[in-house]
Each structure stands twice: as structure tokens, then as C-alpha cells.
Write a structure and sequence with these properties.
The protein is 72% helix and 0% strand. The chain is mostly helical.
Length: 475
């Protein structure tokens, strides 16, 4: 089950909210949330609920023992090792065996291990919880079912943001959703749904028509303009797709009194790669900063050690995204630019014309997504060559021209949706009305009408549309 499905939007979520608000006590509300969360997770594979229950149990017991044991560091290491071992088996064991087979010829067959949905997200959440208990930043949760609720909450369990226990521990037991916040949550969910169902899916359809990941010979024949258009659409798709799920998660949280931190801050407005990673998938970046980079020593042990720490972080960042060399290379690709920026480039960018840093960041990000798109590295080379006409593929044909003409206004709107322009306009209208001492009628009308319009448009986009991919389910 995905958020951007008619079943979820018009049945599962309303049913959950009905029973949630029917419950009188926080304990009863938590029971409703837990039941719905486990049903939601079981929808993608009932047997993997057992894995989720086991992971939460390891974190629950580990945190309690860490908090009271005289051997806290050993218990912490064992607890984290157990969780990472389970993550490693399901996500990386096949990849590891493929490498061994390539070198030695053994084993003869690679087991087909299905990746449980959301395992990377909830594993990192549980690790952050145990570490925070070890650091005495939070007290261990004594009730297993409440930690299970934290680990399995369907709002963010399968696609993030990576929520830290210390940010929601109080709200698990003491929360109240006010009417303004419920309205704000509905608006946020509606915006996220429209970003996914209309914009991200539309961009995905265009991108996949040109970036042919399964047929390298056909990919080599795509005209250069088609490849540029395909990469542009994939660049828009991956932001709109992933940020849409974060929007919907944050919106659903507000509907019942949870406040999840922002996960995106218009990353394509960045003026450096350093700035990009402060804006993109913020919960993952901050996780690696707080639980890997800083514990390794950060930048406190000299330049050489800092670069080694950065290398480890970006190797792991790439690997987190998938068990394939292209993701690892994608992480190291950004590592190289971050090192260059720290040594020389950031100072030069400060004194350059305003548009130069932004253009530089966009170019680096744009080409980085090509690495991310193709698990087959041959596709990366063919695409890069083809974008400059080096596959004898020509620049344009009728198909590319028609696709561009047919989608030009859609692409313009998708680009606008990737910027804070609409948010800025709304803010300006609010400010103007407040200055004049009048009610912001236009904004109130927008806030009331927009969610209804977006829900209707999203439903129309989803009806009969079987093309509804979600990139981050594989992570």
C-alpha cells in the first residue's frame, strides 16, 4: 500500500482517522494507531511484520540494558550490530555474494532475498533511539508496544523522514491536535499527494520513455535532446516524489498531534553541494552527521582525518540508498565535490556573481542523478556520451520534439513546484494584508479551496493510472 493510492486516500486513512478520533484516551488512540500501522506494513508482506517486531524488540531490550548496565558500551555495540546484521542480510547479502561470485565463481546461485519495505528507515530510527539512550538524552521506553508504535508508525515507517525518538517521545504519551493544526495537516497532505500523483508521476513517465534502463542498445539510439529531457524529468521526479511522501507524512502527523521535522528545504535552490545536503533528505544527512561523522571525530582531528571521516560517511550514504555500485559511486561523487568545496571552492564561490554558485550546484546535482538512475553502469556511460551526440544518435527527432511541445507547460509548473515561489507569493499576500490591518481573505480562501481541488485533481490522475512508482521503496 502506498500513500498515493485511491484505497489509502479514500478508505484506509479516513478509517484510521475515524477510529482515532473516536477513541477517548491517548492509550486508546495509540492502540488504534498501532493496529493500523501493523496492517499497513503487513500489506506489503505479512511475514516481514515478524522482522519489524524482532528489530523493535532488540532495540527495546538493548536500550533498557544499556541504561542500567555497567557494560553499557558493549551492550550498545551488540545491539547495533544485531540490527545492522539483519539490515545487511536482507539488503546487502545478495550484493556481497554477487561480488564473491564474480571473483571466485562461487556460489553457483545467488539467493533471491526480497528487501522488506522501509527496513533502512526504521533500522536507522531504532539505532538513533538506542544511541540516544546510551548518551542519556532520553530515558528508555519501558513499554514494548509504545516503542513498536514509534518504530512502525505508518506515517513515516516506510519512506521517512527518519524520526528521532527524542523528538516524539513526549507526543507518544501527551499530544493533542488542535483544529488549526488538523487543517494545516490536511493541506500539507493534499499538497504532497498532488506533487506525487500529478507532478512526480508525470515526470516519471517522460523520464522513463527516454532513459531506457533495460535496453542499452535502444538507449544508445535516443537523440541527445531526448536524453537531456529525460535527465531533467528524472531530476524533477526524484525530488517531487520523495518530498511528496515527506509532505504527506508530516501532514498526517499534524492531523493527530505529531510534529515531524522537515525533510526537504527546496534543495534545487542550493548554491553549493554543501548547501544541497543541508536541504536534501535532511533527516538522513543529520543522522550520518550525529551518529557517524561526529563520533568518528568530525573535523576535530586534523584535515586528513576529516576527509577520511567524510569518505566513510559518503560511502555509507551511497550504500544506504541501495545494494549496487552505482549508489556507492553516487555517494563518492558528492564526497569529491564536498572535499573540493572545503579546500578551495567555497571561498571562491562567495566572491563570484550571484548566479554562478547556483548554476554550479545545479550542474553537479543534474549529472549526479544519472549515476543514481542506472544500476547498470554501462547505462551511465551511454547516457553521458549520448547527451553530447557521441553515440551517433543525432540531436533531435520527431518523438522528442512532440514530447517537449506536449509537456512544456507541465514541465514549467513542475520546475516552479520545486522552488519556494508559491510559498513566497502566499507569504507576500499575508504580509500585505496584515500591514493594512485586514483579514488575509485570499490566503484563507486558498487554504480552504486548495486542498479540495488538489484532492480531486489527484484522484482524477490516479483513476485508471497503473503507473504509480515510488523510488524510495527500494531503500
Amino acid at each position: 500500500m502506498v500513500f498515493s493510492s485511491l484505497f489509502f486516500v479514500f478508505f484506509f486513512l479516513p478509517l484510521n482517522l475515524f477510529f482515532y478520533h473516536l477513541a477517548k484516551t491517548t492509550n486508546a488512540k495509540n492502540t488504534v494507531l498501532l493496529i493500523f500501522s501493523l496492517i499497513f506494513y503487513a500489506w506489503g508482506g505479512p511475514k516481514y511484520v515478524i522482522l519489524l517486531l524482532a528489530m523493535v524488540f532488540i532495540a527495546w531490550m538493548g536500550a533498557i540494558i544499556v541504561y542500567h548496565s555497567a557494560y553499557r558500551r558493549i551492550v550498545l555495540a551488540v545491539t547495533i550490530a544485531l540490527m545492522l546484521a539483519l539490515l545487511g542480510y536482507f539488503k546487502y547479502w545478495g550484493f556481497f555474494l554477487s561480488g564473491v561470485q564474480m571473483i571466485t565463481g562461487f556460489p553457483e546461485t545467488i539467493p533471491d532475498i526480497v528487501l522488506p519495505i522501509g527496513i533502512s528507515f526504521y533500522t536507522f530510527q531504532l539505532i538513533s533511539y538506542v544511541v540516544d539512550v546510551y548518551r542519556c538524552e532520553v530515558r528508555p521506553q519501558k513499554r514494548y508496544r509504545l516503542l513498536l508504535l514509534y518504530g512502525s508508525l505508518f506515517h513515516q515507517c516506510i519512506a521517512g523522514p527518519i524520526v528521532r525518538y527524542r523528538d516524539v517521545c513526549r507526543e507518544i504519551l501527551h499530544r493533542k491536535a488542535s483544529h488549526p493544526e488538523i487543517g494545516k495537516g490536511i493541506r500539507r497532505f493534499s499538497i504532497g499527494l498532488a506533487k506525487k500523483a500529478i507532478l512526480a508521476n508525470g515526470c516519471a513517465a517522460i523520464a522513463d520513455s527516454f532513459l531506457l534502463t533495460d535496453d542499452m542498445s535502444a538507449l544508445a539510439q535516443v537523440p541527445a535532446a531526448g536524453l537531456w529531457l529525460g535527465v531533467l524529468c528524472f531530476t524533477l521526479e526524484i525530488y517531487l516524489d520523495f518530498s511528496a511522501y515527506s509532505d504527506m507524512a508530516i501532514g498526517m502527523g499534524l492531523m493527530i498531534g505529531f510534529h515531524y521535522r522537515e525533510n526537504f528545504n527546496y534543495p534545487y535552490m542550493a548554491d553549493s553541494i554543501t548547501d544541497f545536503w543541508r536541504r536534501w533528505h535532511i533527516s538522513l544527512s543529520s543522522f550520518f552527521r550525529d551518529y557517524v561523522y561526529i563520533p568518528l571525530g568530525g573535523n576535530r582531528r586534523g584535515m586528513t582525518r576529516m576527509f577520511l571521516n567524510l569518505f566513510i560517511v559518503w560511502f555509507l550514504t551511497g550504500m544506504w540508498h541501495g545494494a549496487s555500485w552505482n549508489y556507492i559511486l553516487w555517494g563518492l561523487y558528492f564526497f569529491v565535490f564536498l572535499v573540493i568545496e572545503k579546500k578551495v571552492l567555497l571561498n571562491k564561490l562567495r566572491f563570484s556573481p550571484v548566479f554562478v554558485p547556483h548554476l554550479y550546484a545545479l550542474v553537479v546535482i543534474f549529472f549526479g542523478w544519472i549515476l543514481f538512475k542506472f544500476e547498470n553502469l554501462a547505462g551511465v556511460g551511454i547516457t553521458l556520451k549520448g547527451m553530447f551526440g557521441l553515440n551517433a544518435n543525432g540531436f533531435m527527432n520527431m518523438t522528442v520534439g512532440l514530447s517537449f511541445k506536449n509537456h512544456i507547460f507541465f514541465l514549467i509548473f513542475a520546475i516552479i513546484a520545486s522552488t519556494p515561489l508559491i510559498k513566497i507569493i502566499r507569504s507576500k499576500i499575508l504580509s500585505a494584508h496584515y500591514v493594512r490591518g485586514r483579514l488575509p481573505v485570499l490566503v484563507y480562501a486558498y487554504d480552504i479551496v486548495a486542498p479540495v481541488v488538489l484532492l480531486v485533481l489527484s484522484a482524477l490522475a490516479l483513476v485508471g493510472n497503473s503507473y504509480n512508482p515510488f523510488l524510495y521503496f527500494q531503500f
